[in-house]
Write a structure and sequence with these properties.
binds pyridoxal-5'-phosphate; about 15% strand
C-alpha cells in the first residue's frame, strides 16, 4: 500500500527503535526522566523559549496551551478550519470552559485586520477575547504556510489588544523548511506553541507545549489533571530526540514529492490550492468521481487517499513513501481521473 492519507501513519525506523530501546528513563511525573527532560530542554531552546512540556498528543498539547491562555468563560479566536475547533471534539469547551469564535476558513491566507476587528475587549457584557490561535502549517488549508510578515502583523494586533497568541505548530517544521524561517523566529512571535513529533518527523508518539517557565509550570498541572502524566516516558522522548536530530532537513524530500504529485494531477483540474509543503489538497467539484469514489478506486489499486468531505480529499507525503511510491500513486490517480 502507498499510504497518502496522513503523515501520522509513519512507523519508527530501525535507528529510532534503537534509540528508544537504549533510552535512559525515570518517572516523569516526578520530573525524573532524564530523556524527557533533555527533550523538553532541546525543544524549548529550538524555539527560544524558557521551557517545554512533553505531552502524549498534539491535541492534548493544544488543549493544555489553550487552558494556559484563555480562562473559563473567555474567548479564543481562530480559523473556522483550525484543528482545535474541527478535530479536537469540543475539548476547549469541555475541559477549559472556553468559548471559541472563528473567522471564515482561509487557511494560511489570513488577514490580521479581519482578526483585529473580531477582538472583543472586557467590559461590555460580551465574552472577552483572550487569545488568537493560528495553525502553521495549516492542515485543512492544504499545508499552506502563513508568511512571517503576516505573523508579525498578527503579533502587533495581539499586543495592541493585550491578548495572547498561540501557534498550533503540529507541522511548524514544514514551514521552517519551506520558507527557511528559523524556528526561534517563529517562537519569538508566540506566547505558547504546540509542536508535534509524530507527524512529519516520524516519531510514534509525542508533542510539546512551549512557553515561559511560569506557563510550563502550570502546564504540568493541567497535563496531570487531563491524565497526560506519563511515567517512564523517556522511551517515547528518545524517539522524539532522534526525530529532531535526523528528520527535519529531510522534510524537503516530502515537499518535493508532494510537488511532483501535484504537477501530475494538476492537468485534471483537481488541485484545490498550490502545494507549499507535504499536503496535496484535492477539490473534486469538477471531477467525474466524488471523494469516496476516488478513494475506493485508488484503494483497489493499493493507494490510500484521505476523504475530507464529499468532494474534497487530500494526499500527504511522508517518510514512508519513497519515489517509487509516488510513481505508483501518479499512475493510479491519473488513471482514475482520466477514466
Ligand atoms: C494541525 C494539527 N494540530 C494538531 C493535531 C493533533 O495531533 P494528535 O493527532 O497527535 O492529537 C493534528 C493532527 O493531525 C494536526 O494536523
Amino acid at each position: 500500500m502507498v499510504d497518502l492519507r496522513s503523515d501520522t501513519v509513519t512507523r519508527p525506523t530501525a535507528g529510532m527503535r534503537e534509540a528508544m530501546a537504549t533510552a535512559e528513563v525515570g518517572d516523569d511525573v516526578y520530573g525524573e526522566d532524564p530523556t524527557v527532560n533533555a527533550l523538553e530542554a532541546e525543544v524549548a531552546a529550538l524555539f527560544g523559549h524558557e521551557a517545554a512540556l512533553f505531552a502524549p498528543s498534539g491535541s492534548m498539547a493544544n488543549q493544555i496551551a489553550l487552558q494556559l491562555v484563555v480562562p473559563p468563560a473567555n474567548e479564543l479566536l481562530c480559523d473556522a478550519d483550525a484543528h482545535v475547533v474541527t478535530y479536537e471534539i469540543g475539548a476547549a469547551a469541555a475541559y477549559g470552559g472556553i468559548s471559541s469564535r472563528t473567522w471564515p476558513a482561509v487557511g494560511a491566507d489570513l488577514d490580521p485586520d479581519v482578526v483585529a476587528a473580531m477582538i472583543r475587549p472586557d467590559g461590555y457584557f460580551a465574552v472577552p477575547t483572550r487569545a488568537i490561535a493560528v495553525e502553521q502549517t495549516h492542515n485543512r488549508g492544504g499545508g499552506g504556510v502563513i508568511p512571517l510578515d503576516t505573523l508579525r502583523q498578527l503579533r502587533r494586533v495581539a499586543d495592541d489588544a493585550g491578548v495572547a497568541l498561540h501557534c498550533d505548530g503540529a507541522r511548524i517544521w514544514h514551514a521552517h523548511v519551506a520558507d527557511g524561517v528559523p524556528l526561534a523566529e517563529y517562537g519569538a512571535l508566540f506566547d505558547t506553541l504546540s509542536v508535534c513529533l509524530s507527524k512529519g518527523l516520524g516519531a510514534p508518539v509525542g508533542s510539546l507545549v512551549v512557553g515561559s517557565a511560569e506557563k510550563i509550570e502550570r502546564a504540568r498541572w493541567i497535563r496531570k489533571r487531563m491524565g497526560g502524566g506519563m511515567r517512564q516516558a523517556g522511551i517515547l522522548a528518545a524517539a522524539g530526540r532522534y526525530a529532531l536530530a535526523q528528520h527535519i532537513d529531510r522534510l524537503a524530500e516530502d515537499h518535493a514529492r508532494a510537488a511532483r504529485l501535484a504537477e501530475a494531477i494538476a492537468p485534471f483540474g483537481v488541485l484545490a490550492s498550490p502545494v507549499r509543503t507535504n499536503v496535496v489538497p484535492l477539490d473534486l467539484t469538477k471531477a467525474p468521481q466524488d471523494a469516496h469514489a476516488l478513494a475506493a478506486a485508488a484503494r483497489a489499486e493499493g493507494v490510500l487517499v484521505s476523504v475530507l468531505g464529499p468532494r474534497t480529499a487530500r494526499l500527504v507525503t511522508h517518510m514512508d513513501v519513497d519515489d517509487a511510491g509516488i510513481d505508483r500513486a501518479v499512475t493510479t490517480l491519473t488513471g482514475i481521473l482520466r477514466a
